[in-house]
Amino acid sequence: MASYYSGYLGCEEPHFLESCSLCRKPLGLNTDIFMYRGDKAFCSKECREEQIESDEAKEKSWKISARSLRKKSSEAGKDSAAGKAVRTGTLVVA
């Protein structure tokens, strides 16, 4: 089996085609490799699908968290301005 190692400043990191990104099973030279997002290799459709589902769940969680934070910050801004007089106009400084 050929090795896909590339040295970087004396350190050797395994190439992404060495093993499955999910289960770490070694990838053979004469076997199918299932790619995802360009830089993740998988030994089977099942491993790739599991990674895709995991990524989608994380993205959904992040979107919900971001939406929640925006909602809280806009509510906090409304509460701090409520009941306060605000002057608007132009200020000229010479």
From TrEMBL:
Zinc finger (FLZ-type) in chain: 15-59
One Gene Ontology MF term: zinc ion binding
Xref: InterPro entries: FLZ1/2/3 (IPR044533), Zf-FLZ_dom (IPR007650)
PROSITE patterns: ZF_FLZ
Positions of region (Disordered): 70-94
This protein's UniProt keywords: Metal-binding, Zinc, Zinc-finger
Record carries keyword Acetylation: no
Residues of the FLZ-type domain: 15-59
Family: Belongs to the FLZ family.
Protein name, per record: FLZ-type domain-containing protein
Organism name: Microthlaspi erraticum
Origin organism lineage: Eukaryota, Viridiplantae, Streptophyta, Embryophyta, Tracheophyta
